[in-house]
Amino acid sequence: MPWNQLIGTNGEMRVKEWLSSKGFRLHNLCWNCAYGEIDIIASFLDQLHFIAVTTKTFAQNGLPAEGITRKKMLSCKQAAQKYLERHPRWKKVIFDVMAVSPTENEQEIILLKDV
């Protein structure tokens, strides 16, 4: 597996643990269709969250959230529409970005909600 995929997978696993610890229910990891992939699909109370995860290995590489482009968000929204066609019970939907970045001793996880 290439280095960047290992970093991304590690970030997604850290976010999965973080979401679970905050009471989110995880539905799908790396869900994909013809329009693209959604990193994590989770729910909290009555809201369904489509979550894009972005991870940086070094602070000098920029902010993790800078990795989520307009094209990535459009792909995520189109994939979410397909997911909702298959799971129509969800009425409240939120698009979030989870940014994972290094700090001195560990990784920091930041939730950018309803982007």
From TrEMBL:
InterPro entries: Restrct_endonuc-II-like, tRNA_endonuc-like_dom_sf, UPF0102_YraN-like. Pfam families: UPF0102. Belongs to the UPF0102 family. This is Uncharacterized protein. It comes from Sediminibacterium roseum.
